[in-house]
Amino acid sequence: MTTAGPPAPDAVPPIGPPDASRSPRYTGPATFARLPRTEDLPAGRPVDVAVLGIPFDTGVSYRPGARFGPAHVRQSSRLLRPYNPELDVSPFGVLQVADAGDLEVNPFHIDEAIAQIEQGAAAVTADGARLLSLGGDHTIALPLLRVAHRRHGPLAVLHFDAHLDTWDTYFGEPYTHGTPFRRASEEGLLDRDHCLHVGTRASLYGPEDLPASADLGFATLGCTELERIGVDAVVERMRARLGDRPVYVSVDIDVLDPGFAPGTGTPESGGMSSRELLAAIRGLAGLEIVGADVVEVAPAYDHAEVTGIAAAHVAYELLSVLAAGR
Ligand SMILES: N=C(N)NCCCC(=O)O
Ligand SMILES: [Zn+2]
Ligand SMILES: [Zn+2]
């Protein structure tokens, strides 16, 4: 954050979205939640949280299309209102949130794209802004974790996903959307006693996948267990695992059941409801969240913005949790 503690009484209030009772929501540029673009803020105005699009999907193993995720989530975010009653917070009134646009990354060369994402994310956060990134496939988590680690040290990663994403290689390739958290663990970016997968389910390659993921630092709270214990107990387990560490939250939208999020590249049956996911995220209020992403929205498989709206609400809850921590 660029500013610490509650805003001083004479502090300049953040610039939020236009008043939707005067400016119809379906007008104007599709920035996230109709927020200002970073370049449209008054010169020198610090940004607390930058919403950054990362349209990259060259790392996918199945259906492509997540490169169109950022534009879709922005379009699906027009109906968000300024006040979040569940957390009693107005995220755009407490924090200066702004849309930093899209990074331009090489769609033909994964290694170069990862380097470009790392540089781009570092530039956007250079003045202390935190990042809420909109993917893009899950490959992008690796460079984002590198950037967060450089500033905050080893990270407690909270990973909402149907998949482990701790596999080793695909076709011999180490940088894919199924491998970012193995690479992050190998690179020493993770606090291995404090990472957690939530929402895991579906078929694996073999019985060794789960213990291998545990060796890399991840406890697992899968959908079967989640159904058994309920979301309040899930929140307790999450908070116990994350502790007081710097937390990075990575939300693969396929953690939701395909009924709640059909627009994604590797859908798996038996997932979380959007109500459960939003409640779980709200349960993070008070933790030290240093960065977050929402990935794997692939609009070509979406209907009526169902997935886009779910992702926009996930992003809004993440911003609300950041704001509630102020
Ligand atoms: N990160 C996502 N969404 N999916 C990873 C699935 C990798 C696989 O095909 O095994
Ligand atoms: Zn996934
Ligand atoms: Zn994933």
UniProtKB/TrEMBL annotation:
Listed InterPro entries: Agmatinase-rel, Ureohydrolase, Ureohydrolase_dom_sf, Ureohydrolase_Mn_BS
Gene3D superfamilies linked to this entry: Ureohydrolase domain (3.40.800.10)
Region Disordered, annotated ranges: 1-28
Record EC number: 3.5.3.11
Keyword Lyase: no
Cofactor note text: Binds 2 manganese ions per subunit.
Pfam families tied to this protein: Arginase
The UniProt record lists the keyword Manganese: yes
BP GO terms, sorted: putrescine biosynthetic process from arginine, via agmatine
Keywords assigned: Hydrolase, Manganese, Metal-binding
Cofactor: Mn(2+)
GO molecular-function term, one example from the UniProt record: agmatinase activity
Listed Pro residues bias regions: 1-17
List of residues binding Mn(2+): H138, D161, H163, D165, D252, D254
Family: Belongs to the arginase family. Agmatinase subfamily.
Name this protein carries in UniProt: Agmatinase
Organism: Microlunatus kandeliicorticis
Record lineage: Bacteria, Bacillati, Actinomycetota, Actinomycetes, Propionibacteriales
